[in-house]
Amino acid sequence: MAKQKGSDILLKIISLILSFSLWIYIINVENPIKTMRVYNVPVRLENLENIDEQNLALLPNQDVMVTLTVKGPASEVYRSVASNFRVIADLDDIALKAGPNEVPIEITSYPSDIDVTPSSNVKAIIYLDDYLEREVTIVSQYEAVATEEHFVAGITFNPSSATVKGPAEYVNRVTALAARGSRENLDIDYKEIISLVPIDENGNEVNHVIVSPLYVEVNVEVFETKTVPVVIDTSGEIGEGYELLGSSVAPGELLIAGPDGLLEQVNEIRTAEFDLSSLTETTDVIQNLVIPDGIISINGGSTATVSFEVRAYESRTLEKSISVLGLAEGLVAEFSSDTVEVVVSGPQDPLEALTEAGITVEIDLSGLEAGEHEITPEIGLPENIGLVTTTPETITVIIRDENEIPPEENPEEQPPEEETPTNTETP
């Protein structure tokens, strides 16, 4: 059994050797004519400007190749490979369109013993698209960082837009041109030249387009900074019956930046004017900040919260006797009223605690001589209590010598009594 198996293997080897020898004999001695296909022969495109002239563009990522059918002696045909052939496609004077285009080829170089006639009608296929040019805005992906006491006021590009050219399929994907780069520790204005990157709506780079110009100048504007107080600007006066106890603003300071000459002139930032006459209670008000042109608010935004503390006043009416001061010795005084009605106002608690004893109503007669005088009483009130009105506002004072008899008490100056007429008529 083992002998039989070994014999079979030996026969197979001998058959293979005889077959190979016969093939060698036929190829080298008989050398019959054979036809064979040569695959993936590259095609060189010539006169590509015809594509541009027809407002078209060659789509990328396409390897233009053809399959050639060749005929000749078996020894030559079987040795044929793609690199043995030079094939061109001349696009001159050919009408082209967007999409696939069949173009004729010419085999300009091939082995001398090979017949390429069977491939005379082969055509290459090229894929074209409409050519498109579009102006696209430049967007900043440039990171500029200033030193601690400086501020990057802005980043601009010159030019601010560029043209994207190429196949419409790719040009239409471009939504912006990204200017990418970075610079740190800036304390003065800075410039540099950077390249543009075409990107789609998701920020991914778009290939196979031409950007013109490809390079732009980036300009970084850097300002100095300083901190200034925020000042509350008001107009008018708080209404009658109310007291403004205080006000505050947040933020109380603002970090600002600006050109050197302008920044030196700004020592405070004021709020928009607020009319105090509208206040009737403690309240917080959002007010715009009046920031000069050219000045940038870095950390405080454009508004501030102004807080007003307001206290409402109440009123009371008290009657108080007049105290006389400074009447000279030997003189006496008579008053048109011995009391004054005083209307006062103030906070509720101090006002309710106020008594007549807490008020003084004084008339100072110092230096006044005998005669009639009109005098305004001086009213003394506790702190936090305000005077509203007095009734009467002025007091008539008559000063005379104490020995002088008042007119109504002098008999010589009394008018004569009327005599009772005597009835003389007789009955």
Characteristics:
single chain, about 425 residues, mainly beta, RNA Polymerase Alpha Subunit, Chain A, domain 2, 4 domains, 15-stranded mixed β-sheet
Fold and architecture overview:
The model is unreliable at 418-427 (pLDDT under 50). It contains 6 helices and 30 strands. The protein has helices at 2-30, 49-53, 74-77, 168-171, 260-265, 348-353; strands at 33-46, 56-58, 65-73, 86-90, 99-104, 106-109, 123-146, 150-158, 161-167, 176-186, 190-199, 210-212, 215-231, 234-235, 242-250, 253-258, 269-271, 274-275, 283-290, 296-297, 303-312, 314-321, 323-325, 331-335, 339-346, 360-364, 371-375, 378-380, 386-391, 395-401. The chain is rod-shaped, with a radius of gyration of 57 Å. It has a 15-stranded mixed sheet that branches. Strands 3-1-4-6 form a 4-stranded mixed sheet. It has a 3-stranded antiparallel sheet with strand order 22-25-29. With 427 residues, the protein is mainly β. It has 4 domains: 23-121, RNA Polymerase Alpha Subunit, Chain A, domain 2; 132-225, RNA Polymerase Alpha Subunit, Chain A, domain 2, CATH 2.170.120; 232-312, YbbR-like domain (RNA Polymerase Alpha Subunit, Chain A, domain 2, Beta Complex); 314-409, RNA Polymerase Alpha Subunit, Chain A, domain 2 (Beta Complex), CATH 2.170.120.
